[in-house]
Amino acid sequence: MEFNDVIEKRSAYRALDYVEITDELIHNIAYTASRSASCANKQPWRFVFVRNKEKLTELHEALSGGNYWAKEASMLIAVYSKKEFDCVIGEREYYLFGTGMATAHLMLAIVNQGLVAHAMAGFDENLAKEILKIPEEIRLITLIAVGKKTDDLSKLGDKHKEVEIKRSTRKEFEEYASIDEYHSEG
After folding, report:
1. Could you read off the pLDDT of 22-33 as tens digits, one per residue?
2. Domain limits, the chain
3. Could you tell me which residues are beta bridge partners of residue 147?
4. What pLDDT band is residue 161 in, cutting at 50, 70 and 90?
5. Chain centroid offset of residue 4 CA
6. 86-95, long-range: CB within 8 Å, 24+ apart, which pairs?
7. Residue 167 has what DSSP assignment?
8. 84, 87, 93, 94 alpha-carbon torsion, rounded to 10°
9. Which is nearest to 105 in space by CA: 27, 30, 42, 25?
10. CA–CA separation, 92 and 143 (whole Å)
11. pLDDT in tens, 46-89
12. Kindly report the CA angle at 15 between 45 and 9, in degrees rounded to 5?
């Protein structure tokens, strides 16, 4: 798939069908994430790829109510890090930035495979870390639902059905960017 096609196809779909998640797929998308830039090449990102049905069911308990749809995902990916994994320069802690860039690579690699990658903030971090045996001092940044897009919206609530069919709009250039100097957002 061409890069621009991958960018255009990436969307936070919620209507998911089962797809087999192979070791090869996991290794390929992890490799793509590993190619991301990082401060002093520290590579602060860490992932737990959860595809085992029993472990997935356990992890579903950590999802917020609004993420009920993610229970249909074939895999959940836990993305975690901690500031000691990356550069800390003055007050700047780079680990979230570096992990975010690698996560973007990971998600685009998933889309390139014809699948959906939907990152979520709605989960109980402590419960998810306990289930996955991630130490307390580590920051669990996001969970990513992975599956195959389906047109069957029957398992979605009305609110999610509406947003599933309509592509979300994006801000105009002037609303998020400027050239040569700061431009007020207001």
Report:
1. 999 999 999 999
2. 12-154
3. 116
4. confident
5. 19
6. 86/38, 86/39, 86/42, 86/44, 87/39, 87/40, 87/42, 89/39, 94/38, 94/39, 94/42, 94/44, 95/44, 95/139
7. P
8. -110
9. 30
10. 24
11. 999 999 999 999 999 999 999 999 999 999 999 999 999 999 99
12. 60
User: What pLDDT score does 108 carry?
Assistant: 96
| CATH topology for the 12-154 domain | NADH Oxidase (3.40.109)
Measured N-to-C along each axis, helices 53-60 and 125-132 cross at an angle, to the nearest 10 degrees, of 160
Give which of 5, 22, 8, 4 is closest to 146, Cα–Cα.
22
Tens of pLDDT, residues 79-121: 999 999 999 999 999 999 999 999 999 999 999 999 999 999 9
Q: What is the pTM of this model?
A: 0.94
Beta strands at 75-81 and 88-89: parallel, antiparallel or unpaired: unpaired
pLDDT value, residue 186: 57
pLDDT at 162 over 90: no
Of 143, 40, 165, 49, give the one whose Cα is nearest residue 97: 40
The tokens 């990082």 sit on which residue?
A: 38
Q: Is 10 left (phi over 0), alpha (psi -120 to 50) or beta?
A: beta
Q: Report the mean per-residue pLDDT for the chain.
A: 94
